[in-house]
Design a protein that fits this description.
309 residues, Cyclophilin, 2 domains, ten-stranded antiparallel beta sheet, seven-stranded mixed barrel, 4 helices, 19 strands
Length: 309
């Protein structure tokens, strides 16, 4: 029981919900850049929502299946074919031994998630199957997948088909408004910089990856007369280095940092970061911490409603 990668794509890796509870040891969480799409794909094949799946970035793979099982794809929209016949996101698809799945042209978004009705036969590292590409940790030999790799499976099965309700189908426009709260060093930024940050549009730089998203746009100034003590970074921390151009920490990012943080993307919007690609645009909306908590509760209730359907 296995998957064979005829072509690997640009950056294809195995990811789950990540490593929780190890950042104080300097171990990044890693995991899916878009955890919501991971969960939705797993729901379609009746898996636990945070089970490991295949994360596909910008250029997709071609995969041969050596076992009858069910699959589902959520997140970025690619032109998809199974044995050269069109298939689509958001629905359960049964595949047979010898079937070939191909990810062709990317239409919208940046990352898709391929869930299978089975489990990957790989070792857990720090309680996760996720691949930290920079550290060479976890996943398939600690790296992205390559052509001719064979990933062994176990506990596979075929399941009854599901279709994701329309309300849960995300759309990716390439232009987003991200909600955020003040960061720990917000008070160090002059009023002109804060105004520029919240009234400007930024663009994702080509120099972005799973560690962080570098932005292009209006440079920001910060009062750095007093030293900043390096402290914990989490996904969504928006740091401003000496260049003045913000960097958004991501899932494989460093666990501590010393650049001032002007803001932090709220938890309920973090999945959007996983769908940003070079050239995409974003603006910011400041919300209170109470409002951020309400948004997170609403999102969880929305997901729970799907689980009960």
């Amino acid at each position: 029981m296995s998957l064979r990668f005829i072509k690997a794509g640009m950056q294809t890796s195995i990811q789950d919900a990540g490593r929780i509870g190890f950042m104080h040891q300097g171990i990044a969480r890693s995991g899916a850049m878009d955890p919501l799409s991971l969960q939705l794909a797993n729901w379609l094949v009746s898996n636990p929502l945070n089970q490991a799946a295949i994360e596909i970035t910008l250029v997709g793979p071609t995969i041969e299946f050596n076992q009858n099982l069910s699959i589902a794809i959520c997140g970025a929209e690619f032109e998809l074919t199974l044995n050269d016949e069109p298939i689509f996101n958001h629905e359960t698809i049964n595949v047979k031994t010898g079937d070939i799945l191909e990810f062709r042209r990317l239409r919208h978004g940046a990352r898709a998630y391929l869930a299978i009705s089975g489990k990957f036969n790989i070792k857990s590292v720090f309680e996760s199957l996720s691949t930290h590409l920079t550290a060479g940790l976890g996943g398939y030999e600690g790296r992205q997948l390559k052509a001719n790799d064979v990933v062994e499976l176990h506990s596979t099965k075929e399941i009854s088909g599901r279709s994701l309700p329309e309300a849960y189908r995300q759309s990716f426009t390439g232009s987003y408004q991200l909600r955020c709260c003040h960061g720990l060093e917000t008070e160090r930024f002059v009023r002109e910089s804060l105004d520029a940050f919240y009234h400007s549009t930024y663009k994702v730089s080509n120099d972005s990856n799973r560690m962080g998203l570098r932005l292009e746009g209006q440079p920001l100034s910060c009062n750095t007369e007093k030293d900043i003590v390096s402290s914990g970074l989490i996904q969504g921390s928006i740091q401003v280095p000496p260049s003045g151009l913000p960097i958004i920490s991501s899932v494989d990012g460093q666990t501590i940092g010393g650049y001032p943080r002007i803001a932090n993307v709220i938890s309920s919007d973090l999945n959007i970061l996983g769908q940003l690609k070079p050239g995409d645009k974003m603006s910011w909306l400041l919300v209170s911490r109470d409002k951020a908590w309400q948004h997170l509760q609403q999102k969880q209730a929305f997901l729970n409603k799907l689980l009960l359907s």
